[in-house]
Write a structure and sequence with these properties.
The complex is a heterodimer. By secondary structure, chain A is of the alpha/beta class. Chain A has 2 domains: 180 residues, Rossmann fold; 40 residues. Helix content of chain A is 45%, strand content 15%. A 5-stranded parallel sheet of chain A has the order 2-1-3-4-5, with helices on both faces. In chain A, strand 3, helix 3 and strand 4 form a beta-alpha-beta unit. The longest helix of chain A is centred in the last third of the chain and has 25 residues. Chain A is globular and about 55 Å long. The relative contact order of chain A is 0.14. Chain B is an alpha/beta fold. Chain B contains 5 helices and 8 strands. The longest helix of chain B has 14 residues. Chain B is globular, with a radius of gyration of 15 Å. The chains are: A alpha/beta, B alpha/beta. Chains A and B meet through helix 3, helix 4 and helix 7 of A and helix 2, helix 4, strand 5, strand 6 and helix 5 of B.
């Protein structure tokens, strides 16, 4: 199977969490004998080639981060360049991720994605959903490495699964999302301990980025 | 104060806005402005807190939102949702929040950098109204405000 993967993130490829997810997923595809070609919408020079690849192939995957509760605007702009009718049949599947770890935060966007392929004359191949992706970018940090390596291994397994089944309509894809909402005791633990820990981690990252202001700064007051 | 971000290409927001909103309002026609897509660089959260790395006309919008209570988005629609022009000005709202996390409305949310903002959507064309209502609720929740509703152009009564 040959698959066209379009990275719908606006973030430059070098720093794109979506790209890192695609690389891990693509490794799984290749291990199972499939091939893929990748286009990144953050690079305008790839848009024409992405459109040609979209029109000339039968298996398309859009991979995207959640932005303000739905698809990033740059990907919406690209989608508006696509024809609403299709010369040859195609299936569109999605890999959707977000910073927060709760699955329910991604469900509204999933609803949009479920209905989208039909509006482009294509069939729907399912949506692979997982949150908790903010720290992927911090994968090189010793504190985060083990957890992020495990997360990326999960995407490699899902690449193998997609190569076998040809879609994300599988029990393992459904299970991949994890908990829909954090249970009450996580809320309690968050208030008591985790919140401070998370704040310290963000302060630590900011310092590494050369930030000299408090993260809750109010520059326009 | 209500800030209306009119993203319609022709820039005309019609008289309807005046009949829908009481109190101070400012209409900003974004089709006349240079506004890039959010590029997700995270600098407004982790490097220059509250200040977007993209130096374009959106900074003026952020400054106005800091003094506003309500944000209205006027947008055309596509695929049943707001079109990319409308979504673009919403994606750039991230500096109004900060990096820190809390639970709000039972969900993980970023903390507010300033104060709550209520949100209303005025849309043009055929769209999935139920979807837009849920999106509007979620956007408002992110801003710790209320959703003031979803109104199709040409319909709707005075609501604020």
């Amino acid at each position: 199977m040959h698959i066209v993967i379009i990275n719908g993130s606006p973030r430059v490829q070098k720093h794109s969490n979506t790209d890192k997810i695609i690389q891990s997923f693509g490794k799984g595809l290749q291990e199972t004998g499939s091939t893929y070609e990748l286009y990144s919408l953050s690079n305008r020079r790839e848009w024409d080639a992405a459109l040609d690849a979209y029109l000339g192939n039968e298996q398309i995957i859009f991979a995207l981060p959640l932005y303000v509760e739905c698809v990033p605007s740059i990907m919406l702009e690209f989608l508006e360049t696509l024809p609403v009718e299709r010369q040859q049949p195609a299936q569109i599947s999605f890999i959707l991720h977000g910073g927060f770890d709760e699955g329910h935060q991604l469900r509204l966007c999933e609803r949009f994605l479920q209905l989208l392929p039909a509006k482009l004359g294509c069939s729907y191949g399912g949506c692979l959903i997982q949150g908790g992706s903010f720290l992927i970018r911090m994968r090189d940090d010793e504190k985060m490495k083990a957890a992020m390596d495990k997360k990326m291994d999960g995407y490699t397994k899902m690449g193998q699964s997609f190569a076998s089944h040809g879609n994300f309509m599988t029990p393992e894809a459904s299970k991949f999302t994890g908990p829909e909402k954090n249970p009450w005791f996580v809320h309690l633990l968050f208030k008591l301990f985790i919140k401070r820990l998370v704040r310290n981690n963000f302060d630590y990252f900011a310092k590494q980025w050369g930030c000299t202001r408090p993260l809750d700064d109010k520059p326009y007051l | 104060m209500t800030i209306v971000l009119n993203t319609l290409e022709d820039g005309a927001v019609f008289g309807q806005i005046g009949t829908l909103i009481n109190g101070d309002l400012e209409i900003i026609n974004t089709s006349d402005m240079k506004i890039a897509h959010c590029m997700g660089c995270n600098q407004c959260w982790l490097k220059t807190p509250g200040v977007c790395a993209i130096k374009d006309d959106y900074e003026e919008i952020i400054k106005k939102l800091v003094g506003a209570e309500n944000l209205w988005l006027v947008s055309d629609t596509r695929f049943g949702f707001v079109d990319w022009h409308g979504k673009r000005v919403m994606d750039r709202i991230v500096p109004m929040l900060n990096m820190y996390i809390e639970f709000r409305d039972g969900s993980e949310r970023h903390e507010l950098r300033y104060h709550p903002l209520n949100f209303c959507l005025l849309y043009k064309g055929e769209a999935d109204r139920e979807f837009l209502e849920e999106w509007s609720r979620r956007v408002a929740s992110n801003l710790a405000g209320k959703s003031l509703g979803v109104i199709k152009m040409g319909e709707g009564e005075q609501c604020i």
